[in-house]
């Protein structure tokens, strides 16, 4: 089982998530690292999954789910071997004080 950090950024705001891989390696849990973040979502933890089916252009995306299992955000082209990319909030209001506009992610 692996654990890795992911930084979500927009001008003047950032959130650091810790993602833990589960079994199979296509799913896991995430949590916000409070001391490393200057902003927050409505949820501080949830689940993630590698979501291929239905992804625009056949890209591989990571979906973030809130604590109730509701689809909340998408990290676009996350598992294609790149170390950064674009992301979006898909559940209105989930962005909390981080905001619901498109943002960037970095490993």
Short synopsis of the structure:
By secondary structure, the chain is mostly beta strands.
Fold blueprint:
Layout: E1 3-10, E2 13-21, E3 27-32, E4 45-51, E5 61-65, E6 71-75, E7 84-89, E8 103-106
Antiparallel strand pairs: 1-2, 1-8, 2-3, 3-4, 4-5, 5-6, 6-7, 7-8
Description of the molecule:
The chain is mostly beta strands. It is built from no helices and eight strands. Strands 1-2-3-4-5-6-7-8 form an eight-stranded antiparallel barrel. A hairpin with a 5-residue loop joins strand 2 and strand 3. It is globular. The relative contact order is 0.22.
What keyword list fits this structure?
single chain, 107 residues, mainly beta
* Radius of gyration (Å): 13 Å
**What is the residue-averaged pLDDT?**
87
Percent of residues in β-strands: over 45%
**Fraction of residues in helices?**
under 10%
